[in-house]
Amino acid sequence: MTEIIDGDAVAQSIRDDLSTAIDQLDAEGVQPSLATVLMSDDPASETYVSMKQDDCAEVGIEAIDIDIDPDADAGELYDTIDDLNADENVDGILVQMPVPDHVSDREVLRAIDPEKDVDGFHPENVGRLVAGDARYKPCTPHGIQKLIESAGVDTEGKEAVVVGRSDIVGKPMANLFIQKAPGGNATTTVCHSRTEDLAAKTRAADILVAAAGVPEMIDGDMVQEGATVIDVGINRVDADNEKGYELVGDVEYESAKERAGAITPVPGGVGPMTRAMLLYNTVKAAGLQHDVAVDLP
Ligand code: NAP
């Protein structure tokens, strides 16, 4: 019987368990805070930011909401980041991507104080992750580690295959899998658009993470019997319903479910975990910056 990994439930338990650390901070007079900076009028980005703010409110993190006109100079965004870096009342800073074309996303990520970089994308934090001394694990791969753990799957000695090599999902996921640490110790293969015979690679996976952004590209034939399948993809495809579209993953769920030992659905799999791990990193940031020892889940 295939286990359907319930990302909503695991994310809820992470949020519940963060209350211990939030109480420890509270006892020292600290309320964790996250500043979200939005320089876009894209409705999807606006929705993501407002969901993150709602999540903060639910667990008792202060959400500081900053909107910058997408037509403003890049300098306005950098000045805002400088102010947030200097503000002792701000523990985490998140600039919602993508930023407008006239702003360099690379420079923006470098401008954020690494101690407040709760996305974990600053080069210092990327380097620490690779070196096995992570300060903030990027939210999506960290959430995936928690999902795999929740399914009772041990990664040690397993063949892990990651489809996708982006800086936000594929690369950090592979880096976590190869760490000599719990949730790591896997023999790891990273596939991408130039990979030859992708199906042969995915069929060898005990743990398969699909993060390509291609709707339903991995079907049941590409999945090893009993594998743990983690579907990161969120793709909008046309559908004959009221909205005119539906969300599907990178995995063809119905056929993959027939072969997988455990599988995440879309929606309700990785997505809620990404949001929960942002809260986790923000609480961790508050502990680090106010020198309060916190017990994290
Ligand atoms: P991305 O930056 O577009 O990267 C996609 C990666 O997939 C690239 O490395 C690309 O290879 C590879 N790829 C594309 N087509 C492929 C193919 N046919 N065969 C093998 N590899 C292929 O995407 P991303 O930001 O990592 O996101 C991936 C998906 O996850 C998207 O659907 C995104 O919406 C979703 N996502 C979900 C969450 C969540 O919380 N659930 C979080 C982040 C992202 P090249 O490098 O060779 O181009």
Attached small molecules: NADP nicotinamide-adenine-dinucleotide phosphate
Radius of gyration: 19 Å
Helix content: 40-55%
The number of helical runs is: 10
Low-pLDDT residue intervals, each spanning 5 or more residues? none
Identify the strand order in the major beta sheet. 1-11-8-7-5-6
Rounded to the nearest angstrom, the distance between the terminal CA atoms is: 29 Å
The percent range for strand residues is: 15-25%
Query: Structural class per helix/strand content?
Result: alpha/beta
Overall, the morphology is globular
| Secondary structure tally: strands | 11
What is the overall pLDDT average?
98
Describe this entry's structure for a reader.
- The protein is of the alpha/beta class and 297 residues long.
- It is built from ten helices and eleven strands.
- Helix 6 packs across helix 7 (170-178).
- The mean pLDDT is 98.
- The chain binds NADP nicotinamide-adenine-dinucleotide phosphate (NAP).
- NADP nicotinamide-adenine-dinucleotide phosphate is lined by residues 140, 163-166, 168-170, 191-195, 198, 211-214, 217, 232-235, 270-271, 274.
- NADP nicotinamide-adenine-dinucleotide phosphate binds at residues 140, 163-166, 168-170, 191-195, 198, 211-214, 217, 232-235, 270-271, 274.
